[in-house]
Amino acid sequence: GAVVSQHPSRVICKSGTSVKIECRSLDFQATTMFWYRQFPKKSLMLMATSNEGSKATYEQGVEKDKFLINHASLTLSTLTVTSAHPEDSSFYICSARDSLGTTNEKLFFGSGTQLSVL
Amino acid sequence: AQKITQTQPGMFVQEKEAVTLDCTYDTSDPSYGLFWYKQPSSGEMIFLIYQGSYDQQNATEGRYSLNFQKARKSANLVISASQLGDSAMYFCAMRELYYGGSQGNLIFGKGTKLSVKP
């Protein structure tokens, strides 16, 4: 089946630094990728929708200058948490949609990134 | 109003027994899809089963079956012959295919933590 690679799986950084998370579709082209954030024991909350070659669409309440999303190719989307603060500590997970998929296709998820900001 | 409701924050089941995880949804979209995902402690999201709103029969995938009751707007997941490896968080999700646009985003419930006892 389709594979989505996400890395790093875990990152610990100091407050004020920026962290980049990569999401790659390994065996299919993903015109659309989604970035979710998950707090402990919480559901996945959509942060933004990333379309190849265009600006990401952010959900209400998500700071676009804080969470920079780039989708430069059909197989790669990146999320950069700029000037990270402890409240940004969370589990971030990406998912990708096969550009050739039908409306009932499942999304393929990356393995997630646990971000801890000290 | 919540679009996906999972009323059971935690469930226990004895190994080899069957368990039902509840999910109700709310949508006015005439066409939608319902999904169940498993999230083990590692954080990855594993697709389990899909049910389309126009599907006449309940979906089944191995030990997983979906009890779809459209009039009641419920899509309960049934796991038969529980195994220790089934211990995980389970998320119900929905994609609205008409009003939800073509992006394909999933709306998640808050999840149910299933613990299988030996």
What would you note in describing this structure?
- The complex is a heterodimer of chains A (118) and B (118).
- Chain A has 118 residues and is an all-beta fold.
- The model of chain A has no long low-confidence stretch (mean pLDDT 88).
- Chain A has strands spanning 4-7, 10-13, 19-25, 30-38, 44-51, 57-58, 67-73, 76-81, 90-98, 108-109, 113-117.
- In chain A, 0% of the residues lie in helices and 53% in strands.
- Chain A has no helices and eleven strands.
- Chain A is globular.
- In chain A, the strands form two sheets. In chain A, strands 2, 4, 5, 6, 9, 10 and 11 form a seven-stranded mixed β-sheet that branches. In chain A, strands 1-3-8-7 form a four-stranded antiparallel β-sheet, with no helix packed on it.
- Chain B is mostly beta strands and 118 residues long.
- Chain B is built from no helices and twelve strands.
- In chain B, the strands form three sheets. In chain B, strands 2, 5, 6, 10, 11 and 12 form a six-stranded mixed β-sheet that branches. In chain B, strands 3-9-8-7 form a four-stranded antiparallel β-sheet, with no helix packed on it.
- In chain B, strand 5 and strand 6 form a beta hairpin.
Task: Give a quick rundown of the structure.
The complex is a heterodimer of chains A (118) and B (118). Chain A has 118 residues and is mainly β.
Helix count of chain A equals: 0
The rounded Rg of chain A comes to: 14 Å
The best one-word shape of chain B is: globular
The residue ranges of chain A in which pLDDT falls below 50 over 5 or more consecutive positions are: none
**What is the percentage of strand-forming residues of chain A?**
over 45%
Estimate the strand proportion of chain B.
Answer: over 45%
* Protein chain pair with the most extensive contact, residues per chain: A-B, 25 and 24 residues
Outline type of chain A: globular
